[in-house]
Design a protein that fits this description.
The protein has 568 residues and is α+β, with helices and mostly antiparallel strands. It folds into 4 domains: 111 residues, Arc Repressor Mutant, subunit A, CATH 1.10.10.10; 158 residues, TolB, N-terminal domain (Rossmann fold); 118 residues, Tetratricopeptide repeat domain (Serine Threonine Protein Phosphatase 5, Tetratricopeptide repeat, Alpha Horseshoe), CATH 1.25.40.10; 92 residues, no CATH class. The chain has 24 helices and 13 strands. Strands 8, 9, 10, 11, 12 and 13 form a 6-stranded mixed β-sheet that branches. The longest helix has 19 residues. The radius of gyration is 25 Å and the shape is globular. 47% of the residues are buried. About 7% of the residues have low confidence.
Amino acid sequence: MNTPAPTRLLINGVVADLSNETLSDGPGNPIDLRPQAFAVLRYLSNNPNRLVTKGELMQSVWAGTAVTDDSLVQCIHEIRRALKDDGHAILKTKSRRGYMLALPEANAAAMPATSRTSNRALQRPLAAFVGSLLIVLAVAAAAGWMLRPLSPGGKPLVAVLPFDVLGEETSARRLGNGLTEEIITDLARFPEFQVIAHDSTETYAGRSIGLAEIAKTLGVGFVVEGSIQRQAGRLRITAQLLDAATGKHLWSDRWDRPDEDLFAIQTEISEQVSNRLGGGHGVIEVAGRIAAHRKPPSDLTAYELYLLGTEKLAKMNRADVEEAIKLLKRAVEFDPGLARAWVELYHAYGVMPSFGADFEANFRLAAEAAERAVMLDPSDAEAHAVLGFSFGDRNDLARAKMEFDTALRMAPNQFEILSFYAFLASSFGEPQRGAEMADRAIRLNPNYPMASTRLFAAAYFMAGRYEDALRMQKQMGPENYGRRMWVYRPAALAASGRTAEAKTALAEALKWFPDLTIEGFVSLPDTNEDDRRRLIETMRLAGFPPCAKAEAVARFEKPVHLPECVER
């Protein structure tokens, strides 16, 4: 007789309960993991110490749905984070083939079921809702993007229906009304799609009207709806995502929360939902990219070229960024008024010098793109943020701060804005606030894109949180580092007392950028005096060459000259 597979495993100090789909640490504190990532972990756990191919995993978890390899890669990344497997010693990558979950007996023993009745077994983290929504909506949209209603500008339309309240509880009814309205308000701040106004959707509260009629009346492609019920001092919230074209239930889930702070529940859900759906890496744009890949290049619209350009830009290596620039330039040639494409052109031109491209030419083009973006859409918070970046590039930190303050007033909880501010906060003399912004952005979007790790690494480095900076860098490959990350890695290692690793990292950095020097790097225009002191100290510890060639620092308005480099 075959022994049944254990349902509770201990993996690197983390308890995985396969029956309840929960993870917890030693003391029993829950660890968030999206359902799709848990499904991958379950399959690997049932096939330990065996190479599981990518195709096998894709078939097991996403059978019958069209998703890219990026979905699997993201799940692997989340599992490693949950299992604290930074070194990939437990969940191993087999190059070009697949993955293996290494479960030696001493490290993954079956755990006895606990006799304690725990509310955590009933609770699905709120991130599970929005994470599932992210995957399912992307897949559903890819399957029929062009068949769904779009706004006149080619952007998708979404409706959030009033959450149903089961029973007559006044406080729960207030939560339902507030939750619906706040999700709509938060989503409306994103320019990537359009959201039906609350006045148009609130008329459906408590009415039994078919989805087809609602979709036809509102002209939307997707509908989010849910319900709230109070039970014995707890709130049970259910939510589901509907395909407005077919009426199919694409996803549903529920979770229980203590009935303690209704406003906190409302705020948390609305912020997380809006940041999963919106932004350059949100579900709406992901769905659009998948659909755009299916069209002949000659049929692509300006908006679709913009979507494909942002996809290339997110890969953060020189070849893909150069391709992103080509796609985004085509987008603005087709539609010069597409402000979002100008925003992304700023990012693309702005990052090119970190890969060794011409500094002056790219920063000039970046500045022009940022100014054009704000001129075309002054209501776009991200446009103001990139203009703030541009002023920082030119060492005009006062105007940079002013633009970022505007962006934060317009979108105080938007992941991208928080991420951008985190990167530049130390230049404003606020390094600790920058690190706090990074923490907040990660809480809002724990499945953050790789491009954001560069911003978070910089924020943590400048706040002296070197281990956090190194943790971010581990999520990138060397080809994604760029000049700045190749400085931060040896410097952070040295500042953390990891001298041997710092020496190795420095040798690698100088292979990628042989001209890296302390003088050259600390002369960058967005570096204030406190940042310079930190960089000089840590770069000295790492052993960076101190002196730059005269022509290398001559291009800076205020070059830094170290004492030992006065006589060149």
